[in-house]
Fold this protein.
Amino acid sequence: MRQAAKPGPRVSASNLARYIGRVFDCVVVGAGFAGLAAAVELSGRGKDVVVLEARDRIGGRVATYEHEGTMIEVGGQWISPGHDSMHELVEAAGVELIGPQEGALLIRSQGGVYRSSAAPDRSHALTPFEMADLGQGMLRFRRLAQRVESDRSWAAANASWLGQPLGRWVKANLRTPAAQQDFSAVLASVSDGMAGDVSLGRALTTTVQGTDLESLFAVSGGLKLRRVMGGMHQLVDHLAAKLDDRVKLGQIVTRIDHGPDGVTVCTEAADGTSSGSYRARRVLVTLPPWLALRLEYNPPLPSWREEVLHRNTAGHVIKAFVLYPTPWWREQGLSGQMSADEGSVRVTFDISEQSGPGIMMGFFEGAEAASMSKRSRTIRELAFIDSLAAVFGEEVRQPHDYLDYDWAADKYTRGCHTPHFAPGVWSVNGQLLAEPVDAIHFAGSEYVGKNNGYLEGAVRSGREEAKVIWRELG
Ligand SMILES: Cc1cc2nc3c(=O)[nH]c(=O)nc-3n(C[C@H](O)[C@H](O)[C@H](O)COP(=O)(O)OP(=O)(O)OC[C@H]3O[C@@H](n4cnc5c(N)ncnc54)[C@H](O)[C@@H]3O)c2cc1C
């Protein structure tokens, strides 16, 4: 696979000399969305900024690769309603968004495969209030399903209440008609279209227990995801274009010497041929917490700071793709989306462009990803194809190409896509994650209270911390 994102300028030993003696207002560590958004914000406010990026490309956990003329998004891809900063970027970059492929979704649940006959009305996006309503409803439903399963005597004592029509429960527990409609339609698809007649008890015990409810809503389009036509690298390039030669690639930050008045950021060149240092009044570290912890800090970070970084570990995801000459499933009225309660790959999306090959994308996640990352690519390909065959049928075995990307094996990411907070970390001292220490500030998708783990969170966090730094610099 060839990288589509345009590499920015590289710093060489000769132009490194230009920086000796120069004191920047701010060094930004990392050229992902958070780092680029922060640097654009600071330089737009007249501050002297430099961005140091370890890789030979910008974008971090967003990467568009070109495979035989087709753009493949190996990292972050989907933009949701309410992700306002991302929508602003899309508009500013002049690119277009496309929604999930139309058509029926397939659901594998408790040994059966169901074709969604009652897909939610996708003519409008859910508003944030409707989304919150849907989320509340899902939470209540899941808790109830767990109670019915774990507490048989409670279920027996409440048998007549559990016998009420599912529709009545939905109306009583979800407030907005749009959320009620999406909720009922997805449940209808897993109860073989019988939602009108099915009882609450039956819906809880026989249809949803085996299936991850969140996945069902994700693949149903209920969350109204959109992706950038032609690739996310266009948004990355749009940000980087505002920074000219202020982005330095191949600069691995290894150590930060710091005090109240400023910092010295030490780097090694990726090819090991040279090292350098950058002095600045502030530094903004935009590495995920598990990587920020690996830098050397002199003096060391206070123990409270190390503790919050330590208690924030990475997830594990392998993003995988099966490419066919055409998106053949569309001819069968299928969207290419599936949700399964079994198999190595449990959720898929059709991410084909308007012309070109048919591309089925899916994830190996969590323990499955950890185990699969130790296997060969051929084994992962077989596992993906078997998961697809169990839902779409033997047609998936026709000649195809297979690609995947293991983010945990990438030394400048080492895990994704969202952090796992240890119990109590977020609720008790999560906000401490974004607290500065001396002149060191932190930003990125893991450090933000809203849209944590998403592209939107990364951009917001970068911009907001840049404003804090700008105010401090005066
Ligand atoms: C497979 C996958 C799918 C995803 N899907 C979605 C999605 O659909 N929608 C969504 O909203 N989000 C998604 N995400 C999450 C989203 O991509 C991230 O939240 C976001 O890109 C993080 O941006 P960031 O700038 O905070 O961090 P990063 O993008 O991780 O940026 C950190 C940067 O620091 C650099 N770096 C690391 N170490 C050093 C060092 N020592 N010195 C210098 N530089 C260093 C890295 O190379 C990187 O460029 C997905 C992520 C993955 C991996």
Summary: The radius of gyration is 24 Å. The chain has 17 helices and 23 strands.
